Amino acid sequence: MAAGYKTVQEAKSRHKSGPFSWQAGLLFLLAGAGLTVYFRYEKARMARARIAEANKGIGKPLVGGPFHLTDHNGKEFTEQDLKGKYSLVYFGFTHCPDICPEELDKMAGMIDRVKAKHGDVMLPVFISCDPARDTPEVIRRYLAEFHPDMLGMTGTWQEVKDVCKAYRVYFSTPPDVKPGQDYLVDHSIYFYLMDPEGDFVEAIGRNFTVDAAAKVINDHIADWKGKINKG
Cross-referenced CDD domains, in alphabetical order (predicted)? Predict the structure, then answer.
């Protein structure tokens, strides 16, 4: 009888099963699946890293840069105040009848999903493209309808023009508007994600759902290796 087997039947059974058991086969399949998941994750992570690095540009940033505004609490706010956390920047105006409210509702959902996963690591910013009507108090009351974490910004017409230029945002008001006359402001519709060093990471368009947009943000935050402020 072959050494190591107690019975002929045991030896035959071992011979039929071959050198690999079903347990070994299962472990092999699980290991293969694990490697597939890992490589897919790494591929996605490297793609995000390439996007973030490419958007920083060389020398002058592609999106973002120096600006001087006033927040909805009446305090001075510059690009330096964005540093330390991720920031999500949106340009709009409080008299917008439909698109801005829809996008700010989405922004509120993004804020909650990011906080649930990473804590208080992102500053959501609303910058008005309509400084003639959007005073700090008007913006403060407006944003209170969407999310308490949102911080609104306004400024002089020139200050708003400068920050829009820095972020490559198009905006236009009708010419020859009379005092008290209602009007709409045409503007770009994107969320601009900035990293804790104030560099542009990625633009999130209207085609993104709340969940898809939050995933983009959460994935970038998870990839971040530097310091990030919480609270």
Answer: SCO (cd02968)
For 54-66, the pLDDT digits (tens) are 555 545 458 999 9
For residues 229 and 85, is the Cβ–Cβ distance under 8 A? yes
What angle is formed at CA 190 by the lines to CA 187 and CA 191, rounded to 5 degrees?
A: 130
Domain definitions of the chain by residue range: 22-59, 68-223
Do residues 91 and 167 make contact, with C-beta atoms less than 8 angstroms apart?
Answer: yes
CA dist 153 to 75, 108, 139, 157, 208, Å?
9, 17, 8, 12, 24
Q: In this structure, which topology does domain 68-223 adopt according to CATH?
A: Glutaredoxin (3.40.30)
Helix axes 210-223, 22-56, angle to 10 degrees: 90
Instruction: Specify the 3-state DSSP secondary structure of 207.
Output: coil
Beta carbons within 10 angstroms of residue 62's beta carbon? 14
Do the Cβ atoms of 124 and 150 come closer than 8 Å? yes
pTM over cut 0.85: no
Asked whether residue 129 is marked as a ligand-binding residue, the answer is no
Q: How confident is the model at residue 178 (pLDDT cuts 50, 70, 90)?
A: confident
Contacts (Cβ under 8 Å, ≥6 apart) of 93? 100, 128, 129, 130, 133, 134, 185, 187
pLDDT band, very low/low/confident/very high, at 33 (cuts 50, 70, 90): low
